[in-house]
Model the fold of this input.
Amino acid sequence: MAGSKQKNIVNALLTVLNVEKLSHSFIRINFSCDEQLTVNPLWICPHLKLLFAEPSTGKIIFPQLDENNKIVINDKIRQLVRSYSIRHYDETTQQLTIDFAIHQEGLASVWAQQAKINDQIGIVGTAAKLMFNQQSLVLIGDITAVPAICYTLEHLPNNVTAQAFVEVNHSTDIMALPANPNANVSWLIRDVNQPNQFIEAIKKANIVNSDNLLIWGGMERDLAQQIRHTLKDKYPNLPADAFHIISYWRQGFAEGEFKHRE
Ligand SMILES: Cc1cc2nc3c(=O)[nH]c(=O)nc-3n(C[C@H](O)[C@H](O)[C@H](O)COP(=O)(O)OP(=O)(O)OC[C@H]3O[C@@H](n4cnc5c(N)ncnc54)[C@H](O)[C@@H]3O)c2cc1C
Done:
């Protein structure tokens, strides 16, 4: 099974252990978690939902589960939840690493810039939509997808190949990855004078069109729409479920104010 969403609710507390300015765009934060997280080693680009404290009380109020064990998310909680990727998780120590791409405003971005040891936030749960299953993977992302793509390339099984295309903000955002003959990564650095360089690179990319091609993307919503159209034009015979291009964020909108899949 490659594409049915797996979700695990945990409603746990994360405590900051370490804060590191990793690069021009990233702050890396290591947390300890007071519960064991479910992270399947076969998950592609696994992510989680962070829950921030209510601004008026400073308290973290976890969502409840209904009688069917489904999580109840109301508007108040939705405004305090943000999606991030698992950059690293150590089951033995229950320590979690998240890389925050910093931008001017935003609950999570501001919190990460001010974070200090012992600060706490909540984690609602972990999830992934896709699992490794002998695919030829294509991974495409902007700065916000760097953690997910790096994690996935670091966990690539021997029977999966990957081509990744990533556009970062600055040369220091290019991450060192272990050498792997099955993985190939093309890094681009954003250039205000060439706003279309990424989409042009995807158009020209020599992607091997095999039976088990799976194209995953995480990026700003307008770019996601362009890339979806470009790739569907380029590979008209690929089935719809070969494409998973997700709007990770949307210019001018906070998370919760737009849909991730349009
Ligand atoms: C499954 C998934 C996994 C993700 N993983 C990561 C991850 O590991 N690391 C990561 O950094 N992000 C990741 N993101 C993206 C992140 O959730 C969004 O960038 C989110 O909007 C940040 O929340 P915020 O509270 O800082 O800003 P919000 O309150 O959501 O937005 C406030 C304003 O900031 C703008 N904004 C949001 N993100 C950016 C940005 N990157 N650059 C410029 N402006 C922005 C919005 O357009 C809005 O105007 C992921 C998203 C998804 C859906």
In short: DSSP finds five helices and 14 strands in the chain. The chain has two domains: 6-128, 133-249.
